[in-house]
Every structure is written in C-alpha cells, then in structure tokens.
Amino acid sequence: MPPVVKTWITQHTIWQALTGQLPPLNLRPVPIASATLDSRTVGKHDLFIALRGLETDGHEYIRQALDLGAGAVICEERARSSVSGTGATTVDCTAGRWALQASIPEDHRANGPLVYIVDDSVKALQLVGGFQRYHGSRRDLRVIGVTGSVGKTSTKELAASVLSRCYDTLSNQGNLNNEQGLPLTLLGLGLNHERAVLEMGMYALGEIRDLCALARPQVGIITNIGPSHLSRLGSMEKIAQAKAELVQALPPADEGGVAILNWDDERVRSMADLTQARVFKYGLTPTADLWADEIESAGMEGIRFRFHYRRPDAKNTDVLHVRVPMLGRHSVHTALRAAALGLLEGIGWDDIVAGIQDIPGQIRLVMIPGINDSTVIDDTYNASPASTIAALNLLADLEPAGAGRRVAVMGDMLELGHFTDEGHRLVGRRAADVVDLLVTVGDLGKAIGEEALLVGFAADHLHLVSDADTTLTLLESLLQADDLVLIKGSRAIGMESLVNGLTAD
C-alpha cells in the first residue's frame, strides 16, 4: 500500500499550481492534511491523486475517496461523470479550458471538496509538488539528491539520519523516488525544513533530469553504476549517462553545488568531468577526500573501520575509528556517503558518528527467528548481482551457532538485459565459496546453481526450484537448528512470501 504523505499545502496551493491563477475569494485556504495515491488511506481534508496503475485505476475509486472525506481530488477527464452527484465542485484545468478564467460557483459550500479535472494526473501531481518546492519551502533549503544502481535507499536513510542531528530534515518515505513518488514527497516540504534528502530512481534517460527540475538539488550523491535496468537502457554506458543527469543538474561550485562521487567506481569517477559543481571523492582509496581502511566484520555486531578525512586545506587529516551496526562490508560505502554529506554540511564528527550509529530500522537487514530454530536473513528489498554478492559476503562474515549451516535461497534477478546470464553466474561462483546449502528459485536462478556446480559445489547440496511455493515446502523439510538462511531475489517471483512462510510464528 503506498505511503500517506503529511503535507504543508492548502487548497490555494493546488488551485494556483493547476490553474495558474490567484485563488478566488470564495475559496478558503483549507489545509490539506495528507496526500495519497490510495483511496483506502484517505482521511478528512486529504488530497487523493487518481493514477492509472499496472493492476488498477485510481479513477474507479474517486467516490470512495470523497465518501471518506477527501478535501481535494486530482483526476483526468474520464472521471468527470463519476463525480456527478457527490456534492463536490469540479474545477476544469484541462488544456481545452486553459484560456478561460477558472472559477468556483457561488453556491460552493465552504470547506467543500474540489475535484480538479486535468489532462494528465501525473503531470498535475508534479505541478503541485514543484509549486510547493518553489513557493512553499525556505529560500535557504538545501536539497540532496541520491541516485545509483545499488544502495540508494540505505544511503538516503543514513544521510537523513546524520543531517537530522543538526537540521530539520525531510526525506522520501520508502521508495517514493520516481515521477509520482518524488513530487508526492515534495508536498511534505514546509518552512520548517532546512534540508531534504531525496532518492531519485529512473527507468529511462531523462527521468532523473526531470526529477531534478522539480527538486532543484544543490548536492548530488552517486552510489555506483551496475546492470540494474540494463534490459531497459541497453548498455552500462546508458545507465551511467542516466545517473549522471543528477550531477549535470547541480549548480556551479560557487553557488553551493557539490557532487559526492564514489571514487572506487570507474564510471562514477568519470562524472567529475560532467559537472560544474565541486567534486567530493569518497571510497576505499587514499586518493579520495574521505576514505576508509582497516575494515573488519564484527559479525552480528556490525562492521568496524577507520575513517580518513583530508581537510580542504590539505594540511590536516582526521583519522577516526568507528563501528556501525550495519551488516556487510558494502555498508562501509554507505557510511562514507553519509559522513561525506555531514562534513560538507558543517556537521561535526560527534554528530556524524552518532547519526550513522543510530541507523533507521529501514536499512537494517531484518533477521527473523525461522522455522526449525533457524534464523532468516531478509534481504528481499531488491536484487542485482552487486547487491546479491554483497549479501553473500555478509553471510560469509557471519558464523552460525552450533552445527548450523550457511543457507542461501537465491531467486531470479530481473531487468539485467544482456548481462542476465553473466550476472547470475557471477552470483553462482560467489555462492559456491560461501554457502553449505544453495537453493535457487525461478528459471533465471538456475544459472546460479549451474555455475556453482561448474566451480565445484556439491550437487547434493544444491536444489533448483521453479517457484516460491515449492521452495517453501522444500525448506520446511531441509532447514535445521541454527541455520542462517539468506533470502535474496526479485520481488516479482515472490521471495517476500518465502520470508513470511519461514517465520517461526
């Protein structure tokens, strides 16, 4: 169910954004409590945006939203007839009516609901979100954009945790990072917010550029470039080009623009030549401005490492030993990004360390008591070769208790294009080095098991399964006490249902 966003907008905000006109005298600036894309979550005076989804169309639920007390609805022309008889006042914002003066009938009841008829609900949502960013936020608001193939959400959450130690900070809920989710997030901007950390996702060239036009980031963080969405964009070069739209949108260095770049990733390094902003380098190499070494897993207690920060005067270097309660060596890069942002935003080391240690629950790998006294590691949020190998590296760092085994349940990784076979086989090679028992799920997942066999994995410890339901039945008989069970794979094949099914309760 999509999140509900608490907003700082009013009826006047929506009116001005969608009509381009001053609000009429008989329209009161009634506060819009929240905004939502799901009619089931509508409350009194909320804004409901009717969008067409993959499985359903929000336009079919406008009456339900109004019955629940919606104060405003944004919808397209085809819903006009369904509004009739609801008592709501319609405001025509379609192109055919654009030249006419928008108005509200004299008999419009105070605080009554308004239904804004538009040509495109997504573009209308973007207009309202952009209006709030430009006119409803502080002049000195600093916006931080975050993108990359892997690690966007964890970076966004940890960066917001650091910034919130010193600033009133807004960030996307969940994965509200696309053409619909980001403008919805912007509706939550208020004059109290001093910083905003916004994750930016994409499926095609130009999408991040459009998101930047809405959000106007001054700081951009690039996590890495990998084969996620390769099937849509066709090449790694196109993926890098799409991600680079963030650094290209940043203001020049003398206007406060900063690009925070992963210096360990060749494609991200090359983005330094594409931006007018100041470049801040992070990574595991001493050539970076902020780098880490002495990385050591503390198992279930997290990860230890040492920060090195070369101050801008180049005369002094801060060296700091830290431990963060995040699992896996890949978490060091996440901590580096958050720390880099904190340093650039004038936050001291004490608050930076406190921020990366007080991590939000959303970026903790969920470890759940499983059936037969096993432990399930839920890493089903997303799946790519890089994130899956990182999860296997984590599993390698963890020591099962007693006679427990390392078990990996690996599902299909989607949207990898021509990298599909190679990406799955890379995972298979790493799995063969790490796990005692390997279960693959789905047609693509078979390549993981086949590659594991080719590099010497024992055939009697491998199970190739077609679907999640069959996998659950198999695991119920295979799992033993103290087994550590990593679940990883694309949501589309039902890996989350495995986690639910394997939970001890």
Overall description:
This protein has 505 residues and is α/β, with parallel strands linked by helices. It has three domains: 5-125, MurE/MurF, N-terminal domain (Udp-n-acetylmuramoylalanyl-d-glutamate--2,6- Diaminopimelate Ligase, Chain: A, domain 1, 3-Layer(aba) Sandwich); 137-363, 3-Layer(aba) Sandwich (UDP-N-acetylmuramoyl-L-alanine:D-glutamate ligase); 366-502, Mur ligase, C-terminal domain (Protein-Tyrosine Phosphatase, Chain A). It is 32% helix and 20% strand. It has helices at 11-19, 62-67, 80-83, 121-135, 152-163, 181-186, 207-215, 230-233, 236-249, 266-269, 331-344, 349-357, 385-397, 420-434, 446-454, 468-478, 495-502; strands spanning 5-6, 34-36, 47-49, 72-76, 89-92, 114-118, 142-147, 169-171, 195-199, 219-222, 258-262, 278-283, 290-297, 303-310, 317-324, 366-369, 375-378, 406-411, 437-441, 462-465, 484-488. It has a nine-stranded mixed β-sheet, with helices on both faces. It has a six-stranded mixed β-sheet with strand order 1-2-3-4-6-5. Helix 5 (152-163) packs parallel to helix 11 and helix 7 packs parallel to helix 9. The chain is globular. It starts with a strand and ends with a helix. The mean pLDDT is 89.
